[in-house]
Amino acid sequence: ELKCALDELEQKNHELSRVNEKLLAGKVRYRAIVQNTHGGLMIIDDNYTITYVNREMLHITGYTREELVGSDFLRIIDARFRDDIAARYRRRQSGYGELPVYETAVTAKDGKQKECEFRVSVFRDENNCMNSVIQVLDITRRRQLLDSAREGEEKFRNLADSAPYAILIHQGDNWVYANHAAEKISGYTHDELLGMKFWDFVAPEHQGLVRKRGYQRQAAENFEPDYEVRVISKAGSERWVVLKGNHATFMGKPAGIIAVMDVTENRKNIESLQWQQEELKAIYENAPVIMLIA
Length: 294
Hints:
The chain is an alpha+beta fold. Helix content is 44%, strand content 27%. The strands form 2 sheets. A 5-stranded antiparallel beta sheet has the order 2-1-5-4-3. Strands 7-6-10-9-8 form a 5-stranded antiparallel beta sheet, sandwiched between helices. Strand 3 and strand 4 form a beta hairpin. 20% of the residues are buried.
């Protein structure tokens, strides 16, 4: 009977050892995943204290692990946002719904500010205390690129709106930008243009050509950049225009940009000259006497 009890105890110890080995292997895998995750990661207890940070979090902040673990996590939050972050933390601890993703600024050890995105989830530990797991993504470069793009777009709009000829951008099938001159040539308002296909106010006989060139332009394929087409304004008047287009990127996506010049009067002048030349030619050929032009 004693031998059976000992055998059973040995078997349980063996099973317990296997469970511990699996738990240890799981912890090793977990730490490997956490340490090599793309973003920073930290765990905060219910007293605002940092209990864990991964390597990327050290890279983002510039602090050592010893400097961060055991410290108040608000120390790394930019002073402008500390009250807001603390309020979010308290609401989350109290069980109120709180957005899990938001942007804030972190102050690194060297004093530099870094724009970061926080993704927060919570769990209760063995003492039933609320803990927060915060994934931290450094979005400073992304914000700089966005700010630069906005600045570039503003400069482009200022330049385009002062241009004497129409400038339009199309993406997919639609216009996504039109300057003031485009409104004047087409007779449509800016909002009306943005609700139209880029070939809508082109004369029917030229719509196929405009669509083909427009798609080629967006795909950055080889195409004839300059050509003349007839357009019909909102009021029904017909105008001849020259399109000069190229490939572009707008809001991070392929697009086509065109400059539109109204050449209606030029065509009328040319047609008038041609008519005058034909009339002079007819007079000359039908004259009863020899006419000399010196």
